[in-house]
Amino acid sequence: MDSRAVRTFRVFVIVTAVVAIALGVVAIVWPRPSLVVVALLFGVYLVVAGALRVFAAVRGHGTPPVWRWTSGIVGALVGIAGLVTLLDPAVPLVVYALLAGIGFIVEGVAALVGGFVGHPGSSRVPTIVSGVLSVLGGVVVLVAPGLALTVFMVFSGIALIVVGAAALLLLPPRAALRR
């Protein structure tokens, strides 16, 4: 690899790693405001995606009417979901947390059934323990969705910091620039 390519790659890695570390620190220090910002960005995305889908449905000459109607209706629903998110970002965040809690419980029940029935290729005790922990985690998320979101954001921040630091540690050495 020529030195210019290595230099460009190094700059890219350094910038993305620093941004990841900075975002990770922000997520840890201000988890709830960070969640709101993420929700607002997601709301903007939904509004734009919905509007583009409706536009494609209206302008979709030559496509089957069923596709156009379906695309238009889905686009309108996506756009409305984005507007709801922009008006009150807490609503979709709580819905996401509740869906995650339900998912944990369903997964836990499935693991418990598998553990008691005897799922082939798995050990009963770890499967049952996993199922119990998943059900308990789901109940905690359903009881305290705000706390669950905050904990998620803190863990996400930690992950961003670790990924950013790892990228910096794995950076090609400067000696590669001289070759």
Can you walk me through this structure?
- There is one protein chain.
- With 179 residues, the chain is an all-alpha fold.
- 87% of the residues lie in helices and 0% in strands.
- The chain has seven helices and no strands.
- The chain has helices spanning 3-29, 31-58, 65-87, 90-117, 124-143, 145-169, 175-178.
- α1 (3-29) packs across α2 (31-58) and α5 (124-143) packs across α6.
- The longest helix has 28 residues, at 31-58.
- The mean pLDDT is 89.
Summarize the structure.
This protein is mainly alpha-helical. It has seven helices and no strands.
What is the H/E string?
HHHHHHH
Relative strand content? under 5%
Mean pLDDT across all amino acids: 89
Number of helices: 7
Q: What would you call the structural class?
A: mainly alpha
What features would you highlight for this structure?
single chain, about 180 residues, mainly alpha, 7 helices, about 0% strand
List the helices and strands and how they pair.
Elements: H1 3-29, H2 31-58, H3 65-87, H4 90-117, H5 124-143, H6 145-169, H7 175-178
Helix pairs in contact: 1-2, 1-6, 2-3, 2-6, 4-5, 4-6, 5-6
